[in-house]
Write a structure and sequence with these properties.
The protein is α+β, with helices and mostly antiparallel strands and about 190 residues long. The chain has 5 helices and 6 strands.
Length: about 190
């Protein structure tokens, strides 16, 4: 094997190993840890984005995934666990998982929050046995520029998504092909 080919194989193996170890850590999170991390991430998002805070005040509920790990080389995957927060209380736990292929390489950690603006949109995540984003209620991904011009009169979609805390070296964030499934974890006693 050529030296350059060997280096590429070693880098690929390292990325896969790191990704798998991060997925195990994320999968092992307790309900209390997910609840705490999701609420902290939402508070931080609100502090950094007044538009997100305004949207949170109008939303029926917010599903927060505070620590999603994404990694891969040609074939990639991502996984994270989050909490559905309604009226300041966690009412359920969910995971988000996605697979992708194509020109990609790297490892990244990020979070996202889905702001459910209607009861029908919120009901969709439980009545579909695992919700694949792109099927069902309409979702609008908000970036920092668009968030600045939003107001309560421009909020017309079922769900809005905010990405936050992006760290690492892997290009591209998106929700297409992502599946969200309810987890069987006990709710925290408040």
């Amino acid at each position: 094997m050529k030296p350059n080919s060997l280096k590429i194989v070693l880098v690929m193996m390292a990325l896969v190993a790191i990704t798998l170890s991060q997925l195990d850590i994320a999968a092992a999170a307790s309900a209390e840890q997910i609840d705490r991390d999701a609420k902290k991430a939402l508070e931080t998002l609100y502090a950094k984005s007044p538009s997100a805070k305004t949207m949170g005040e109008k939303a029926i509920a917010v599903l927060v995934f505070p620590g999603i790990v994404k990694g891969g080389f040609i074939v990639g995957g991502q996984y994270g666990e989050g909490a559905l927060i309604r009226n300041g209380k966690t009412v359920g736990f969910y995971n988000t998982i996605a697979a992708s292929y194509g020109l990609q390489a790297g490892l990244q950690k990020f979070g996202y929050a889905l702001f459910f603006m209607t009861e029908d949109a919120l009901k969709w995540i439980d009545k579909s046995d695992g919700w694949e984003i792109g099927v069902g209620p309409s979702i609008v991904v908000i970036d920092a520029g668009a968030a600045a011009s939003m107001s309560s009169t421009t909020l017309q979609s079922d769900i809005y998504a905010f990405f936050f805390d992006q760290k690492g070296l892997m290009g591209g964030l998106g929700l297409q092909g992502t599946k969200i499934t309810k987890l069987d974890k006990a709710l925290p006693s408040d």
